[in-house]
C-alpha cells in the first residue's frame, strides 16, 4: 500500500504493535507523541522511513489516515481533530468513555465523509475469527449460552489504567473485547448485570489485582457470561470461550494451543499466546487500510464500537449500583 501516509499518535504499548503492522503494509509513517517515547519507537524502524514530528498539526499535514494509540480519555479530541482535518481514523478501543462522546465522533466522521474504525483487535484473532465463522455457518444453531474469560496482569505500569475516569476500568478497558464478541454472535444486548472487586482506584502498584463478572441478556434471549481479571505481575495472558446452542458447542482455551508470545514494553505480555500465522494487528490494520482505499467495509464498524461502549458503561453502572441496567434499542422491547 505505497500511497498510504499514516500519522501514528502515541508511542506507548499498543503503538508498539501498530507501527510494525503499518511498516509491513508499506505505509509511510509519521509518529507524534507527548510522552517522550516517539524518537525511541521510530528509531527501531528508521530504515523504513518512519519519522517523528513535534506537533499534531504537522502530523495531520503529512497524513492521509490517522491511527490513535493513546490513553482512552484522549481519544475523542484527537479523533475529532483528525476527522475535522478530513482524515480517516483508526482509534484504539474503547472509542470513548461516554455514549455521547462516541456518538459525537461517529456523527463527525459521517458528516466529513471519512471512516472511523474502532480497533477491536480480538475480532481478528484466528481463534475468534474461526469461531465467528462457524457460528455464522450454523455450527451450534442459534447461540443460547455464551461464556468468555480474559485474564492478564494488572496494567500497573501505565498509571491511567487504574483510574476509571481515564480508562473506564476493567469492565470498559479489558472486558469490552468480549462484550463486542458476545454482541457479534448473539445480537443486541438489552440488559446487563455486573459485579467487580479488587483494586479499582489509582494509584496501582505491582501486586494490585481486580476482577469483574458481567451477565448480558440479549434481545434474542441468549445469555452471555463474561469474566475479566487483572491479575498479579506473573499472570499469564489467557482467554477462553464456550459457545453453546441446540446444534452443538464450540470451546477454546488459549493455554491449550501451540503458540508463540508477543511481548510489549517492559516485558509485559501484550496479547495472549495464540496460533498466529500473522499478527492480528496486521490483519486488523490491513482491513482498515483496504477500506479507506476503496475496498469493502471493515468487519468492525464505528457503530459496533459505540455498542461495545454502551455495554461496558452499563456494566460499570450495574457494578456501582448493584442493579441490572437496561439498554434500550429502537424496535426492541
Report on the architecture of this protein:
The protein has 333 residues and is an alpha/beta fold. The chain has two domains: 5-120, NAD(P)-binding Rossmann-like Domain (Rossmann fold, 3-Layer(aba) Sandwich); 122-326, Dihydrodipicolinate Reductase, domain 2 (2-Layer Sandwich), CATH 3.30.360.10. The protein has a seven-stranded mixed sheet. The protein is globular and about 50 Å long. The chain is built from eleven helices and 15 strands. It has helices spanning 15-24, 38-43, 56-62, 75-84, 99-112, 126-136, 164-167, 169-173, 176-186, 280-292, 302-321, and strands at 5-9, 28-32, 51-52, 65-68, 88-92, 116-119, 143-153, 189-198, 210-218, 223-231, 238-245, 248-253, 260-263, 269-274, 325-326. Strand 9 (210-218) and strand 10 (223-231) form a beta hairpin.
List the helices and strands and how they pair.
Elements: E1 5-9, H1 15-24, E2 28-32, H2 38-43, E3 51-52, H3 56-62, E4 65-68, H4 75-84, E5 88-92, H5 99-112, E6 116-119, H6 126-136, E7 143-153, H7 164-167, H8 169-173, H9 176-186, E8 189-198, E9 210-218, E10 223-231, E11 238-245, E12 248-253, E13 260-263, E14 269-274, H10 280-292, H11 302-321, E15 325-326
Helix pairs in contact: 1-10, 4-5, 5-11, 9-11
**Second-tier CATH architecture of the largest domain:** 2-Layer Sandwich
Number of structural units classed as domains: 2
Helix content: 25-40%
CATH superfamily of the largest domain: Dihydrodipicolinate Reductase, domain 2
Low-pLDDT parts are: 259-274
Distance linking N and C termini:
46 Å
Beta percentage is 25-35%
Biggest sheet architecture: 7 strands, mixed
Quickly count the helices.
Answer: 11
Shape: globular
